[in-house]
Write a structure and sequence with these properties.
Layout lengths: L10 H9 L12 H10 L8 H24 L3 H19 L1 H7 L8 H10 L13 H4 L23 H10 L1 H16 L3 H10 L16 H27 L4 H25 L11 H6 L10 H4 L7 H6 L8 H12 L13 H18 L1
Helix pairs in contact: 2-16, 3-4, 3-6, 4-12, 8-12, 9-10, 9-11, 12-17
Length: 369
């Protein structure tokens, strides 16, 4: 059943992912009508609503941690599995508010970033400084899809083995975070050359291996310090309690498995967030939009792409729009532009279809290259 507020997909939506036709992005002009219509129809949707953000985030975190405890304490493996799945979905949703934090006008939602870090970012060793200052470059018109974009690789044009490796990184993410914050981070404070490596290469949720992060400045440097200190204390506590036996091994394994599950789910979402077809040239806003995807139909996208990320193409069109406004914005823009418009070309029906298109692309173009 389709949500009543979103138009049902037409047949051309169903065909696009299966065909996998490559879009010529280089040199594409902006669709001025689309940009104007999107801006005009969403002017009243720009303000974040605290009464949505706070209960959604805190409720998701509470369900996630409660389910994690249930998985650890369960006596039946099936009960533990059920709690584990629920913990992954809930903590995944709570974690993805880091994306909102990077775009928020914090004066309109005071205290939200601090509380998110206190409840989710520091305990899971994913403080917001790992994303702030990184993600905004992905939205810069002159950097998107180029070598200076920390969040972009032309995955559709790469070798087939790149996709399994992408998931393998997520599996070992908990171990990597413990090493980053529990070992390398503290050591780098007394070894300057190591500190440079840690800050440039190990202090951002980035996928471009050639990207080097610059040292933080001003207020952001102070924020970075406290968040890194908190995450390091968590990591060192995990190491110490695991070595001394104070933390039961099965509890540690459950904790790491849940974080790995969250990372795997996010990797799957990331793989279909874009078409990944730009070869390094700066793109217009319209080209960036068409290299991105919306998966607005059905219930499942609300689980694997929560907090508005099922509207990823729309987000690239209107980055400052709060997540709770994206469904209504999509309804308005899709209705105004029609099913033969540029806007409709970024809408896809399923995660499965987009993954199949990406795999097919790597098998053909990647192998040919």
């Amino acid at each position: 059943m389709q949500p009543a507020s979103i138009p049902a997909p037409s047949s051309n939506h169903d065909e696009t992912p299966r065909k996998g036709a490559r879009i010529t992005l280089s040199g594409m002009a902006d669709d001025r009508e689309l940009l104007r219509t999107a801006a005009e129809l969403t002017r009243d949707l720009q303000k974040p609503r605290a009464w949505i953000y706070w209960p959604d985030f805190l409720g998701s975190a509470a369900v996630g941690y409660g389910s994690l405890a249930g998985a650890i304490l369960a006596h039946s493996p099936w009960v533990a599995l059920a709690f584990g799945v629920l913990a992954i979905l809930a903590l995944y949703r709570a974690t993805l508010f880091i994306h909102e934090i990077t775009h928020l006008n914090h004066a309109l939602l005071p205290g939200f970033r601090f509380m998110w870090n206190l409840v989710i970012g520091v305990p899971t060793m994913l403080p917001s400084f790992m994303y702030e200052g990184i993600h905004t470059q992905h939205h810069t018109r002159t950097k998107y899809g180029t070598a200076e974009d920390p969040e972009y690789l032309p995955l559709a044009l790469m070798k087939p083995w790149s996709l399994p490796f992408f998931f393998l990184v997520a599996v070992f993410m908990p171990v990597g975070l413990i090493l980053r914050f529990g070992v390398l981070g503290p050591l780098s404070m007394i070894i300057p050359p190591l500190r440079r490596v840690v800050m440039e290469r190990l202090s951002g949720l980035q996928m471009n291996p050639s990207y080097r992060r610059r040292p933080p400045e001003g207020e952001f440097a102070r924020q970075w310090f406290w968040e890194e200190l908190g995450a390091s204390l968590v990591a060192m506590t995990i190491i110490a309690t695991a070595v001394t036996g104070l933390l039961p091994l099965h509890a540690l394994l459950f904790y790491m498995a849940i974080i790995a599950g969250v990372a795997l789910l996010n990797q799957a979402r990331t793989l279909v967030a874009h078409r990944w077809e730009n070869e390094g040239e700066p793109l217009t806003v319209t080209a960036q939009f068409l290299d991105s995807t919306n998966v607005p139909y059905g219930i499942l996208p609300r689980l694997w792409a929560p907090v508005g990320l099922r509207f990823h193409a729309l987000h690239h069109l209107l980055p400052s729009l709060p997540y709770h406004s994206l469904t209504e914005a999509h309804r308005r823009i899709a209705g105004a532009m029609g099913q033969d418009s540029t806007y409709a070309k970024a809408n896809y029906p399923t995660l499965r279809g987009l993954l199949a298109r990406l795999i097919s692309s790597t098998m053909t173009r990647g192998m040919a290259g």
